[in-house]
Amino acid sequence: QVQLQESGPGLVKPSGTLSLTCAVSGGSISSSNWWSWVRQPPGKGLEWIGEIYHSGSTNYNPSLKSRVTISVDKSKNQFSLKLSSVTAADTAVYYCARVVIGGSGWYVDVWGKGTTVTVSS
Amino acid sequence: QSVLTQPPSVSGAPGQRVTISCTGSSSNIGAGYDVHWYQQLPGTAPKLLIYGNSNRPSGVPDRFSGSKSGTSASLAITGLQAEDEADYYCQSYDSSLSGAGFGGGTKLTVL
Predict the structure, then answer these.
(1) According to the model, what pLDDT value does residue A103 have?
(2) DSSP string covering A20-83, please?
């Protein structure tokens, strides 16, 4: 079955850029799924960041749109997140996820284990 | 501020039935978009529990059920077990986000 694994620095300086990659195994990133990033600040709920299709089409949360870039690398079967101008409010566990969009709406059927990113000097 | 509204906490004794509500608006549940539920055990990633309002993925016990009506949805858990103690999140597509909107999460305590 499809598995997702996040990787990237666990510590980012304020005003810097957070960069994470999600490796997809057990399936192709060129399937009919979208691929998404979701984050969870400490002790808080889930927040959708954005998503990408293998064609490169993207959708971003309006509250983060000016700072977010999600890209896909089909040759490596992975997709990535860049979040610029980070502050302490961006400290969170970041999950990559496989999205199903269809007759039953938009939902995540596969989640990565998550990676903790702390913004601090 | 979450897109969907859930009670912060619910509790019940083993064997009892509990429900968790999820209230939306005209840009998500009220617009006809389906509701989905996730279970997050302590220290782990969320797991899909219910999709399409009332469908269970393979492996999810039939003690878990979902329903939707108007601008709200509910998750019901019957025969409560200690292992059900977790955070539960509802989620729906939101047209104002052009993406997923989540509830703030409900912590279920098994007494």
Answers:
(1) 75
(2) EEEEEESS-TTSS-EEEEEEE-TTS--EEEEEE-TTS-EEE-TTTTTTEEEEEETTTTEEEEEE
Query: A45–B91: do the CB atoms touch at under 8 Å?
Result: no
Q: Walk along chain B (111 residues) and give the pLDDT tens digit of each residue.
A: 899 999 999 999 999 999 999 999 999 999 999 999 999 999 999 999 999 999 999 999 999 999 999 999 999 999 999 999 999 999 999 999 999 999 999 999 999
What residue of B is the nearest CA neighbor of A64? B97
A67/A12 Cα distance (integer angstroms): 15
Task: Identify the pLDDT of residue A55.
Answer: 95
User: By a Cβ cutoff of 8 Å, what residues of chain B touch chain A?
Assistant: 2, 33-36, 38, 44-48, 51-53, 55, 57, 89, 91-93, 96-105
Burial class of residue A55, CB neighbours in 10 A (0-12, 13-18, 19+): exposed
Amino acid at B19: T
